[in-house]
Amino acid sequence: MNRWTRWEDYVAGVCGLYAAVAVLWTAQTSTSTTLMVVFGLLLVVAAVLNLSMPGTPWLEYAQCAVGVLLFASPWMGAYSDHTGAAWTSWIAGIVAAGVTAAAIRPAMEAHHRTIPSH
C-alpha cells in the first residue's frame, strides 16, 4: 500500500476540514463550535496520519471512531436543534466513518502482508 494514495483518507480529511470551518457560516452554540472544531481537526490529523502510514489498522479504527463521535456530537452537545451545525456534523461524520470503515479491511490486509512470518 503506497503512501498518500488512499482516497478514503482524503475524503475523511475533507469531511473533518469542512466540519471545522463550517462553524464560520452555520448557526452555532459554544458547545457546537467546540465539538465541530475539535472532532473536525481530529479527523484531519487522523487522515494525514493514515495517508502517511498506510496499513496501520489502529489508525483506521481511531479515524472511524472520530467520525462516529462527530456524527453523535449534536446529541452529545445538545445542538441537534441548530439545523446547520447539526446537519453538518451528521453528514460529515457519517461520510467520514463510512469511508473509513470501508478502508479498514484493506489496511488490515496490508498490515498482515508486512508482518514477517516466523
From TrEMBL:
Its name, as the record gives it, is SPW repeat-containing integral membrane domain-containing protein
Pfam family name, one: SPW
Native organism is Sinomonas atrocyanea
Where the record annotates domain SPW repeat-containing integral membrane, the positions are: 7-99
Superkingdom field = Bacteria
Instruction: List the InterPro entries.
Output: SPW
